[in-house]
Amino acid sequence: MADKDDLIALGREIRRHRKALGLSQEALAERAGLHRNYVGFLERGERNPSATTIFGLARTLGVRVAELVATVE
Question: Which residues contact 23 (CB under 8 A, 6 or more apart)?
Fold first, then answer.
């Protein structure tokens, strides 16, 4: 299971990229095929997303997966 700090770092990067695009959590969720609440859980580090979810979010945000996990040590 992922360490809580890792999930928080991933969530911080998702939020940073989402805000840079000027998207709300709801808009990101809709584009990525996720529920709005789930995006909030991810951004707060409260859920451990699957690889498929991370890949989909990266595509939706227009970044490489490596950019989302760059701050995870």
Answer: 31
